[in-house]
TrEMBL record:
SUPFAM superfamilies: GroES-like, NAD(P)-binding Rossmann-fold domains. It comes from the Bacteria. InterPro entries: ADH-like_C, ADH-like_N, ER, GroES-like_sf, NAD(P)-bd_dom_sf, QOR-like, Quin_OxRdtase/zeta-crystal_CS. This is Quinone oxidoreductase. It comes from Devosia neptuniae.
């Protein structure tokens, strides 16, 4: 048996229940893993609330790191004792679990388990956004919302290492300072400034090449005003609510803009893509291009408290649950 955080009905953090959960032997193509760290992400709250519905009951979470304890038939790439990490396999909030071996990667020496658990989803998200959704070039200017958040801190450092000019937004003086420490050239406090007006000032009226927005509903409309003509609006999260565009002609009126709503699953659907992306991520961490801040940890049994902190914008950087 494993100890796990189980969701029996969709709802608020109170529906997260710490209890025993059955653990079978690994089947063909699977590995059993004793987890050492579990990443906390906004998608976990979407699945818990029912915004991204899951078949009930289910074990929450989709990102973690640990040690392989058993191999299923046909698994040859990994061995018992290997340190591995993953994202995108729901059931992470547990002390032990089964994983599809095709969707895990080895953790290299020099990257500890907490960092690995904290960066798989956030870091792979940053990778595809910066290298694939819009292959960011030196000299380009971007706006990154929630720059002090988990994805934001990784992505702004990475973007700066590519030679981009990075403008961030944050919701407090403390978070503004943190975003500046993590590579932003300028950070706008959206609680005290109109970020669209400030972006135009910072860019001499031109606007930015790309807006990366994981916040969603509350920032979307004004983000369109931050873009240069034919710029790209990348909406990759819904922290403040789901975005809708009832009138597509707004994109033409604001400069023949492009909009996309990507997800990690589609960018790393093939194992080869996953390995390349994870390799680039781990290299960026090992080389110092990205410094990962695990600023908060919670015991696994306190997952509800962690969800409240995340949804209450009380966290910065990455948050890890410890089984």
């Amino acid at each position: 048996m494993s100890q796990a955080i189980v969701v029996h009905q969709h709802g608020g953090p109170e529906v997260l229940s710490y209890e025993e959960w059955p653990l079978a032997a690994p089947g063909p193509g699977q590995v059993a893993v004793r987890q050492t760290a579990v990443g906390l992400n906004f998608i976990d709250t979407y699945q818990r609330s029912g915004l991204y519905p899951q078949k009930l009951p289910f074990v929450a979470g989709s990102e973690g790191a640990g040690v392989v304890t058993a191999l299923g038939e046909g698994v040859t790439e990994f061995s018992v004792g290997d340190r591995v990490a993953y994202q995108g396999q729901i059931g992470a909030y547990a002390t032990e679990r089964l994983l599809n071996a095709e969707r895990i990667v080895a953790i290299p020496d020099g990257v500890d388990d907490q960092v690995a658990a904290a960066i798989m989803l956030k870091g792979l998200t940053a990778y595809y956004l910066l290298f694939q959704t819009w292959p960011l070039a030196a000299g380009e200017t971007i706006l990154w919302h929630a720059a002090a958040g988990g994805v934001g801190q990784i992505a702004t450092q990475w973007a700066k290492s590519l030679g981009a000019r990075v403008i961030g937004t944050a919701g407090s003086a403390e978070k503004v300072a943190l975003a500046l420490e993590n590579g932003c050239d300028a950070v706008i406090n959206y609680t005290t400034e109109d970020f669209a007006e400030r972006v135009k000032e910072l860019t001499g009226g031109r606007g930015v090449d790309v807006v990366y927005d994981g916040v969603g509903k509350s920032t979307f409309d004004k983000s369109l005003d931050c873009l240069r003509p034919r710029g790209l609006m990348v909406s990759f999260g819904n922290a403040s609510g789901v975005v809708s565009i009832p009138d597509l002609t707004v994109l033409s009126r604001k400069g023949s803009l492009y909009v996309t709503r990507p997800t990690t699953a589609h960018y790393v659907a093939e194992r080869s893509a996953l390995v390349v992306a994870a390799g680039a991520l781990f290299e960026a961490v090992a080389s110092g291009k990205i410094k990962v801040a695990v600023n908060q940890t919670f015991a696994l049994k306190d997952a509800a408290e962690a969800h409240r902190a995340l949804e209450g914008r009380q966290t910065t950087g990455s948050v890890v649950l410890l089984p």
